[in-house]
Amino acid sequence: MLTRLFNEPSLLPDMQKFGGWVDDSGSEDSKIKDEEQERCRLGDEDLDEGDVKDGSSRAQSEIAGEDDDDEDVDEDDCGDDGDRPKKRGPKKRKMTPARLERSKVRRQKANARERTRMHDLNSALDNLRKVVPCYSKTQKLSKIETLRLAKNYIWALSEILRNGKRPDVVSYVQTLCKGLSQPTTNLVAGCLQLNSRNFLTEQCQEGARFHLPNPSFSMHAFPYQCSRLSSTHCQSGSNAHSLRNHSFCSAYEALYTESTSPEYNSPDYESHHSPPMCVNGNFALRQQESLSPDAERGYQYSVHYTNLHGSRSSATHGLAYGPSGTRSGSAHSEPSTLPPFHDVHVHHDRAPPYDELNAFFHN
DNA sequence: TAGGCCATCTGGTCCT
DNA sequence: AGGACCAGATGGCCTA
Description:
Low-confidence stretches: 1-90, 197-363
Radius of gyration: 30 Å
Strand order of the largest sheet: 1-2
Number of strands: 2
């Protein structure tokens, strides 16, 4: 299993098993240090330029934190070689037991900080895993794959915003999976397909509005929605045309619906933790609203929010696009009463630097 | 068993 | 001086 217990405090003592010099005077590192000291004592140092620099840095590191009562030892004293020119830089000092102890403490503190830093980094990566289009607890994306998928996802969304129209599913999947490993590609494709099925199941069989079990959480986590996952799948349904033109039910909501689908309950895929698989740029509201003339007219970007009582409201931020993708409303016509999450609406006329995105994406 | 992924240690560098 | 950041090294775990 790839899943591991990150940030497990009980793992911290395990540092001793890595052979570090901490609490292990007989470890490899201790031996190396002892050997270096022995070399110094024997005067067999024959440093080239790189070694001088390295030795200087090492000496500088060793000096940190030492007391004045430490015995200073001239570097040349080690070799006692009168022919060699005196080396510049800080003088090496003898590692007294007190200095060794302080050095150990410094190193321990640095190791602890490094662990914390890496744990924070992993935590951030976990958060990123939850917002990329495929999230699975049992088949966790690797770090590199998470970053790649996130990059592709950002790119895909940017393209949707730029074009103002939905891409076809194939190109969307291709975009998401670009540069990913085969297993990750399969995983992402599987997630997309599964979500599409869920969407269809909810839409076609129930035909009812969707309810969020925990709308407050979901809106905080993903304050946006999209719908009409896959025209391909929709067309395969009995009411494909209707779905294509009128079904603006939110796949995102569908993913939060208590589904009877066995796939939905599968522990392998927890796609409901992922953001919507938006393939068409429709950040539509509820199904009911989607039937409004505006929604039917096309690509309207909206924002949902939730008040403290759990009731949902919505605001449309004037990003209505006609079928041709041309803007039919004012992108900055902010509503008089902005929802709490108004900052997530799309500033379409503030186009991101697509040239840079493009260069980045194709690198 | 090889390879991928990961956590940790470690030393160097840069910055405050 | 000390902390943050980085990259290399190392060893463990897991899977094909």
